[in-house]
Amino acid sequence: MQSIQSDALEGKKLKLAGYLLAGNVALTVVKFFIAVVTGSVGLLSEAIHSATDVISSLFAFLGIRAAAVPPDEDHPYGHGKIESLAGFGEAVMVFGIVIYVAFESIHRLISPPAIDQPLLGAFVIGSTAIIAVLVGLHTRKVASETGSIALRSNSAHWLIDATTSFAVLLGLLVYYLTGWRMADPILGLCLAVWMGWGAWNLSKVAFHELIDTVLPEEENVLIAKIIGAEEGVLSFHRLRTRRSGNLRHIDFHIVVPRDLSVVDAHELADRLENKLEDALHPAHAVVHVDPFDELKVGR
């Protein structure tokens, strides 16, 4: 049953990643065209930002696809880290675009250019912002359901894109109403700071998964609660948890009565593994059994 559910989740992630890639390509083409027509640095920054989102979506698509490959002799724990690596790569690319947008904004602050057809630019960027919000929220929902760091990074990209698009819209409207040329490059600089903060947060999440940081505190508490509620378990120790892609890895030792048969102890361990894997799906649990030793009590 878990294998079928996992396959369904992987299929859902891969399908959405493909749609996100196509959507980013379409939005990027539109934004570059309008940026050229209007000459707005805000729109130009948005177009370049969307171009990096195309690469990010490609990373997510390829990362999810590679991470779904079953374990093999060379990779007995699977390929889930590829997805985390893709998420980290997306964050690094955002840092690159932040540097470019900041440089371009400062340059245009020194010599602010005029903007052609600001209302056309405002209409297009406003439309793309609404699309980005809807897509970002849906992607975040699927990322939460599947535990995908790559989709989580992509959802953040779309929501950041929506926020920056609304800021560009504001700058174009201010320019149209007041003729103040400084509005566009100032907002461009603000966008660079905003994107940089988002990229920093995304990179931290992906980095912690790459170095096998423990699962969140609430998940570890749930694990302890499930173990403690299992009849026949006297105590547990050496709990280790980590995440690989969307798969949680859990292993620990349980202490059982010394007179418990090998068969009963094995069945107890199996029950615990199944309960944990169901509660934290998708997950892989390994339980080691230790007989109670009164000489070790209190040490």
Structure, described:
With 299 residues, the protein is mainly alpha-helical. It is built from 8 helices and 3 strands; from the N terminus they run H-H-H-H-H-H-H-E-E-H-E. The chain has a 3-stranded mixed β-sheet. Strand 2, helix 8 (262-279) and strand 3 form a beta-alpha-beta unit. Helix 3 (81-110) packs antiparallel against helix 6. It starts with a helix and ends in an 8-residue tail after the last strand.
Determine the N-to-C terminus distance: 42 Å
Structural class: mainly alpha
Shape: elongated
The number of helical elements comes to: 8
Strand order of the largest sheet: 1-2-3
Number of strands: 3
Largest sheet: 3 strands, mixed
Tell me the helix content: over 70%
Low-pLDDT residue spans? none
Give the radius of gyration: 25 Å
Mean of residue pLDDT values: 78
Beta content comes to: 5-15%
Order of helices and strands: HHHHHHHEEHE
Describe the structure using short key phrases.
71% helix; 299 residues; 10% strand; 3 strands
Strand and helix layout:
Blueprint: H1 2-38, H2 41-67, H3 81-110, H4 118-146, H5 149-178, H6 183-210, H7 217-228, E1 235-244, E2 247-256, H8 262-279, E3 283-291
Parallel strand pairs: 2-3
Antiparallel strand pairs: 1-2
Helix pairs in contact: 1-2, 1-4, 2-3, 2-5, 3-5, 3-6, 4-5, 5-6
Summarize it:
This protein is mostly helical and 299 residues long. The chain has 8 helices and 3 strands, in the order H-H-H-H-H-H-H-E-E-H-E.
